[in-house]
Design goal:
Radius of gyration: 19 Å
Number of strands: 5
CATH topology of the largest domain: Beta-carbonic Anhydrase, Chain A
Bound molecules: cobalt (II) ion
Order of helices and strands: HHEHEHEHHHHHEEH
Strand order of the largest sheet: 2-1-3-4-5
Structural class: alpha/beta
Helix content: 40-55%
CATH superfamily of the largest domain: Carbonic anhydrase
């Protein structure tokens, strides 16, 4: 291994650090002491969907969890721990579940493409696909069909977040935290609000049903 490996990244890092310092000399010293993000972002690992940049937030302003196809499973200790820490320790006010159109994971799930280990993970997206089989089959354009599944998947993950013990307990003790479902477009960089925002488990189920009904 040479010492010059990934030299460009270190150069980028140095330049970034210097520019942040130049802009605000207290930037790092202020962040060192604490983070007080108001948002938890749960999104896809896709390199084209970077949380902070898309919503224009600086380091310290959004707590982030990403995995393939932005899936929230009740047995995933990693996701549950992130949600727990965000809600109970950081006291975030909003949880943003963000899918994206043209998601490779969703597409692979839709077409039953075999990729190996990841197939097991994407089974969760296939559950969403199978639940909405009739609506999806009614869409002629194959890209539109996958994009609709990207929306259904994000909406389902909102419900899953709302059903976690973390959220149920937070709401039971009167903590104010709202869960939102969004879908991001790689084509124009804009976020589509899927209109399933919920501040209680009941509201989540109700808004989910309404939103699914409205989609053809
Ligand atoms: Co994706």
């Amino acid at each position: 291994m040479s010492d010059t490996q990934l030299e460009n990244l270190f150069a980028n890092n140095k330049a970034w650090s210097e520019s942040m310092n130049a802009e605000n000399p207290e930037f790092f010293s202020r962040l060192v002491n604490q983070q007080t993000p108001e948002y938890l972002w749960i999104g896809c690992s896709d390199s084209r969907v970077p949380a902070n940049q898309i919503i224009g937030l600086a380091p310290g302003e959004v707590f982030v969890h990403r995995n393939i196809a932005n899936v929230v499973v009740h047995t995933d200790l990693n996701a549950l721990s992130v949600i727990h820490y965000a809600v109970e320790m950081l006291r975030v006010k909003h949880i943003l579940v963000v899918g994206h159109y043209g998601c490779g994971g969703v597409k692979a799930a839709f077409y039953d493409n075999r990729t190996g280990l990841t197939d097991n993970w994407l089974r969760h997206v296939q559950d969403v696909r199978d639940r909405h089989e009739v609506k999806l089959a009614a869409i002629d354009d194959p890209n539109e069909r996958v994009n609709r599944l990207c929306e259904f998947n994000a909406m389902q993950q909102v419900v899953n977040v709302c059903q976690t013990s973390v959220l149920r307990e937070a709401w039971a003790r009167g903590q104010s935290v709202t869960v939102h479902g969004w879908c991001y477009s790689l084509q124009n960089g804009l976020i589509n609000d899927l209109k399933v925002s919920a501040s209680s488990r009941e509201e989540a189920m109700e808004r989910y049903r309404d939103a699914v009904e409205k989609l053809r």
